[in-house]
Amino acid sequence: xxxxxxxxxxxxxxxxxxxxxxxxxxxxxxxxxxxxxxxxxxxxxxxxxxxxxxxxxxxxxxxxxxxxxxxxxxxxxxxxxxxxxxxxxxxxxxxxxxxxxxxxxxxxxxxxxxxxxxxxxxxxxxxxxxxxxxxxxxxxxxxxxxxxxxxxxxxxxxxxxxxxxxxxxxxxxxxxxxxxxxxxxxxxxxxxxxxxxxxxxxxxxxxxxxxxxxxxxxxxxxxxxxxxxxxxxxxxxxxxxxxxxxxxxxxxxxxxxxxxxxxxxxxxxxxxxxxxxxxxxxxxxxxxxxxxxxxxxxxxxxxxxxxxxxxxxxxxxxxxxxxxxxxxxxxxxxxxxxxxxxxxxxxxx
Length: 349
Ligand SMILES: [Zn+2]
Ligand SMILES: [Zn+2]
Hints:
The protein is α/β, with parallel strands linked by helices. It is 27% helix and 26% strand. The chain is built from ten helices and 17 strands. It has helices at residues 41-47, 92-95, 144-147, 150-164, 179-190, 220-230, 246-255, 278-283, 296-309, 328-337; strands at 2-7, 16-21, 30-38, 62-70, 79-82, 85-86, 106-107, 126-129, 135-137, 171-175, 194-198, 213-217, 236-241, 256-264, 287-290, 319-324, 342-346. It binds zinc ion (2 copies). One zinc ion binds next to loops.
């Protein structure tokens, strides 16, 4: 058996297409036919040369597929989503409860292709899921496209909200109205928080109210006054930085109330440094937490949220144009011009 893969070499070069043999499964592995793969912003950044990944590689990690064969106990034919990375379960970090930082982490869509691991990303007809990957069945009610959002945007938003400790009645500020931002907004709203969302540029900002935002702001002054009014000047209970901008980090630190929490998850590439007054962190009892990748429980939570709320919030509106695998270059161009939407590739038609 063989698979067709779109290979990324370097920014500015077109993808090449390679037919690769599908190797025999080992214990714990699952072969999945890719139904659809959405182009996440980090894929776009790699393709544009804004971040470096080992190459050649098969990009794409926000994926939904169907089980073709499994030595991990998955039933053939099941429509599935899975964790963004496989962890060993035995190293120091795995044993410390942060498998997303495993020393042997195998992150889908981010690995150099090799003879042993030729199928590691979503931009291919098939992907081979390694031992140590959390695999979950996708509920029938979810469309392929919306279901594909589960394992990056939804799971990451779940991880961020878990880290924030947000509780019903809290006032939350979300920096960044991209797909991660509006997803986090919907999750907070569904648990009874009042959410304010900030973004200077995102095309998603106007629709954030449909994802539960009580107010939107495109400048710092207006965000400050909205938050001050809602909290009698106390500051927000929870501030989430999901924009990836240095400005968002600084504002999150300023807007959190005494004893509030600040979760940073947007800045996955270097953005410079932010001035912090240590005395402020001490006196305001601030809790500052970083979130990168996510734990298996976050994927389950994200999928469950999507199952229960995919009609309450307009997730279908986040889906952009859909391309076949052979038009992956066009898909990336479209993604560059489709701010606030997820462009999809359906490798098997
Ligand atoms: Zn992603
Ligand atoms: Zn490990």
